[in-house]
Structures are given as structure tokens and as C-alpha cells.
Amino acid sequence: MKYITYFAMFFSCIANGTFGQSAGNYAIDRASSGNYIYNNQGGVNTDRAVIPLTNPANTAISLKAEVMMNVRATSYTAIFAATQNGRDAYEVDSLMSGRIAQVRYALGMLGISAEDVHIDAVSMVPTYAFKLEDKKFNKRSIEIPTGFEMKKNIHILFKNHDVLDRIISEMAFVDIYDLVKVDYNIDGMQTYYEELKKAAMDVIRSKEMTYSDLKFYIEATGMSDGFSVTYPIERYKSYTAYHSGSSPQAVLYERQFRDVNNFNINSKQTTIHVDATADVRNQQFVVQTAEKNRTIFYDRMPYNQFDRVINADMEEPSIQFYYTLQLTYLMMTQNQKDKNLEAEAAAKRNNEMAMTRKMKRRAPKPRPFH
Q1: DSSP letter string over 50-69?
Q2: Overall number of domains in the chain
Q3: What span, in angstroms and rounded, lies between the C-alpha atoms of 248 and 15?
Q4: Closest CA to 3 of 204, 299, 237, 260
Q5: Rg of the chain in Å (alpha carbons)
Q6: 334 lies in the same domain as 194
Q7: Whose CA, among 191, 192, 287, 325, lies 20 to 30 Å from 334?
Q8: Which has the closest alpha carbon to 156: 181, 175, 174?
Q9: End-of-domain residue from the set 185, 201, 228
Q10: Residues 117 and 66 in one domain
Q11: Measuring CA to CA, how many Å separate 72 from each of 16, 53, 189, 283, 305?
């Protein structure tokens, strides 16, 4: 039984995944899946929802409204990087200018005007290479100039996101494959903030009604708020999608290592050395894993923390606006409210009486007639 434990420890070191012992002698089965759900299992117990409570501190309470809005961009800016090599500066500039002219023509056919295309010159530098010089008594490598390299960025402004696929195709036609990024532009941000404020106030009023229905009285004593915004480029994440078999375990099973005394692992390529008994001595094998496919996806901000989400059914990556409004209150019962009203009324009467006496003392006395 202790050898089975050794093998379990061994396989937990050579790969990231879930290992389980199958119902056989030394046959350990590995099943590791790498998509996003498997990669993000945090061990959270989902049997019971965690609901935060508002805990009053004496008679002080705090109410918070968190609202979010998904907004489509009003325009987009795609940035492509173009590189051109040539034997001299004239050749480099001519070839690059020809490619950009073709890009401008193709974009015009897509309805993108010349004013919406900006060429950003990045660099033009000489290039060098090493040449082997073979003489009679020695050999040496000499660095020699080979030409020039020019880099330019192409900024393209467009309104319809569906056009991006056709833009990429036209860029590929002139050997421009490097899509640096796509910026999402938004116009009239203040309008969206005002709409979020109104939604947050509606949420606060709804929460205030809960206390009113329970015959509590609350008075606002302070407030704080804040805005934020997230663009799609900030919400893209990556994961590795794969399902691995049991090749390391199969190697052990086929070699039939029955009595394993010790083993050690040389990481990186994972070389495993196993010392066995009389039939097999000092055997080793190499476990070399394949490169897994990595992909990226748009991971929008989850909705579960917000009281209200405006435009929740958004199918495309969008700009997400956030607004938080928090107010502090003084909470009272009916009896406390009545006592406070009586105290306020008494204080008001006393102030009025004091002012009346003060004005009487300041009033000028009538002079006697002679």
C-alpha cells in the first residue's frame, strides 16, 4: 500500500491536473481538462448562497446602491502594425508607400474615408547581418549592413464593428497581419452617468421603503458616491483548452514496476528515474508534454454584485459603466421619533420665547412728555 502512496505523490508533482487511483494494481488514471470552468474551480461551496446583511451600528445604518450599464461603442479604432525591409532607404519607402496606397483604396471601398485613416511613422533603422570571412590562417565573422527596416502603424476609425473582419482581410492581402489592438470609443459619457445616478436613486428609495414598511424612520446623515468604467480590452482573459490522457501512467503500467523503492524527478522536461528490484535496474523515461492550445475570450464583469443592470442582454463586448451610491442614516422607532419631535418642538418654543424676551429688552423705552 505504501507504494501506491508513492505513486500518487509522484504523479501529483509531474503535472497540473486531477489525479485519481483506478481499481487496479498501480494503474493510476489521469483526467485533466483545461477549459475555463475547470481552470477556475476555487473550491467554493455553492450549496448555500452568501447574502450580505446590513448590520446597524446602534441606530446608524448604511444603504448602498450599485448599478451598472452596458453601452455599445459609438466608434472603433483598429491599429495595425506594418513592417517593410529593403536594400536601401528608397526601396523601403517605395514598397511601404505602395502597400499603404493599396490599404487606403481597399478601405475606401469599405466606406471608410481617407480622413478616418491615420498613418503613424514609428521607425526606420538600418539592418545588419554577420558574414563569415574564411582566410587561410583564420576565420572571423564580420557584421555588415544589409539594408533598412521601416515600421508604421495604421490607425483606422470605423463605426460598424462588423466591418472589422473585412478590414483584417484587406490588410492580409498586403501582408499586414499584426492587429495591435481595437479601441472602443464612446461619446457623451456624462449622459450615461446621469442615467446611472437616477437608477441608483431608485434603488435607494426602494431600500428605504423596506424600513418604512416595518415602521422604522430613517434620516440621511451623509453620503458618498463614485463612478468607474471598464473597456473591453481590459476584460479579455486567456485559458488553455485541453484534455490529457494517461501516458505517464501507462508507461509505468506497461513496464510493470511492482516493487518501487524510490524515484526522483528532474523538472522542466520531467525526466523520471526509478530504482526497481532485481528484474529492472536504474530505468528511466522522459515525459514530454505537448504544447496546449491557448485562447482568449471576453469575460464581462459579472452581474451578481449589482442591484440593477441596464442593457443586461448585450451580445457583444461593450463598455461597462459603474456607479455606487452609499448613504448613512439615523434609524428610529415610532416612539423615538415622537420623542424627538416633542423635543424639537419644545426647543423651538424655548428659542422663540428667548428671542421674544431679548427683543423686549432691546426695545427703546418711551420718553415722558414735558
Answers
A1: -------BTTEEEEEEEEEE
A2: 3
A3: 10
A4: 260
A5: 37
A6: yes
A7: 325
A8: 181
A9: 185
A10: no
A11: 39, 34, 12, 62, 21
